[in-house]
């Protein structure tokens, strides 16, 4: 039996949009059809980021810490921070040490009696502004040691862009979900396809659930009873 021997199937923007139009019972005929579909794709990417943790977007970042400075603004492409740690003796193979920090709410941070206390940081409050986010450390870093701030973050999915030859910033296993979601969005925009909307929405949710389940963490998780007492 002859097979291709390749594992590189993907779809560029033009192919994705054409497939979605066909599923909605429509035809891609004009530049406006392409533009409105591309806009819907970018909105879908924002929706996916609101749905939860997309593992392929997880990255690691580090930044140098300045003694006496508690607030560290991060890049605008960072959507959320998952884990934060303080590293001492960075680069030393025998003494480098990472200590995880506890994330606290704005309420807990506001109730700190002295926000200027200096020591090795133990906690952080994640400040979310419309344009970017910032990590606020407490205690404020001191000058006793040289610290490095490390963090794992969820990066924003790249925009679709203009050229039809562009591919989306996602694993190929999410292509069925994207095509189904776009077909559903197009059916909401075009009255002649509105009768297909319920079926297209059901297909979209099914494809999303399949992809999201495959993208979840597979690491072992253990729960030990007896840690809490209930009254």
Secondary structure layout:
Elements: H1 13-23, H2 31-51, E1 58-64, E2 71-73, E3 78-88, E4 97-100, E5 102-103, H3 106-110, E6 118-119, E7 123-128, E8 133-138, E9 140-141, E10 147-155, H4 175-189, H5 197-214
Parallel strand pairs: 5-7, 6-9
Antiparallel strand pairs: 1-10, 2-8, 3-4, 3-10, 7-8
Helix segment tally: 5
Termini gap? 67 Å
Count every beta strand, where a strand is a DSSP E run of 2 or more residues: 10
Query: Radius of gyration over alpha carbons?
Result: 23 Å
Overall shape: elongated
* Biggest sheet overview: 4 strands, antiparallel
Can you tell me the number of structural domains?
A: 2
Strand fraction: 15-25%
- Helix-strand category: alpha+beta
User: What is the ordering of alpha helices and beta strands?
Assistant: HHEEEEEHEEEEEHH
The side-by-side strand order for the widest beta sheet comes to 1-10-3-4
**Helix content percent band:** 25-40%
Describe the protein in words.
The protein is of the alpha+beta class. The chain has two domains: 96 residues, no CATH class; 100 residues, no CATH class. It is built from five helices and ten strands. A four-stranded antiparallel β-sheet has the order 1-10-3-4, with no helix packed on it. Strands 2-8-7-5 form a four-stranded mixed β-sheet, with no helix packed on it. The radius of gyration is 23 Å and the shape is elongated.
């Amino acid at each position: 039996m002859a097979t291709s021997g390749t594992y590189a199937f993907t779809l560029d923007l033009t192919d994705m949009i054409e497939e979605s139009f066909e599923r909605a019972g429509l035809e891609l005929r004009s530049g406006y059809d392409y533009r409105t579909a591309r806009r819907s794709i970018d909105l879908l990417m924002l929706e996916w980021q609101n749905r939860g943790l997309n593992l392929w977007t997880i990255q690691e970042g580090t930044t140098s810490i300045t003694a006496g400075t508690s607030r560290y603004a991060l890049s605008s492409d960072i959507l959320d921070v998952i884990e934060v740690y303080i590293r001492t003796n960075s680069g030393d193979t025998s003494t480098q040490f990472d200590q995880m920090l506890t994330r606290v709410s704005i309420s807990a941070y506001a109730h700190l009696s002295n926000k200027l206390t200096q020591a090795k940081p133990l906690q952080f409050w994640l400040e979310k502004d419309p344009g970017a986010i910032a990590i606020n450390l407490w205690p404020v870093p001191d000058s006793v040691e040289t610290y490095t701030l490390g963090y794992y973050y969820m990066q924003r999915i790249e925009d679709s862009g203009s050229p039809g030859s562009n591919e989306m910033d996602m694993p190929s296993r999410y292509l069925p979900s994207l095509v189904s979601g776009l077909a559903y969005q197009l059916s909401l925009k075009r009255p002649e396809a509105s009768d297909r909307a319920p079926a297209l929405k059901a297909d979209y949710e099914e494809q999303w659930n399949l992809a999201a389940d495959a993208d979840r963490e597979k690491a072992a998780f253990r729960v030990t009873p007896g840690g809490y007492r209930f009254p």
